[in-house]
Amino acid sequence: MVLGGTVTDDATDEWLTLDQKVNTYPTVRGFTAIGTGGDDFVQAMVVAVESVLQHQIPQGQVKQKMSSGEKYVSVNIGLFKSFLVQAVYNAMKSDERMKYFL
Length: 102
Prior knowledge:
The protein is an alpha+beta fold. It has helices spanning 14-22, 38-53, 85-93, and strands at 2-3, 6-7, 29-35, 62-66, 73-79, 98-101. It has a single domain (27-101), classed as ACT domain (Alpha-Beta Plaits, 2-Layer Sandwich). 33% of the residues lie in helices and 26% in strands. The strands form 2 sheets. A 4-stranded antiparallel sheet has the order 4-5-3-6, covered by helices on one side. A hairpin with a 6-residue loop joins strand 4 and strand 5. Helix 2 (38-53) runs antiparallel to helix 3. The radius of gyration is 14 Å and the shape is globular. Mean pLDDT is 78; it is low at 1-8. InterPro entries: UPF0250_YbeD-like (IPR007454), YbeD-like_sf (IPR027471).
């Protein structure tokens, strides 16, 4: 179900409809995961995305930032292909340390 620009059930293809409404490809689309674990969490998110892409992510497409209290780290990974969006979301959210996903 799509409500107010968000997909409430990621098991459906409704995310694709929303994605096509708000994005034009080719473009770099950023995936941001926020979690605990510092550099280890960042690397786990990179590995999750690379497992979907089946190739390495160029270093310039990975950005990280610690929260002000240094409890959480956000990692942003750029991606070009829209058909991989759902697979990337699923791979990243499989890590239990991830607390938020943008």
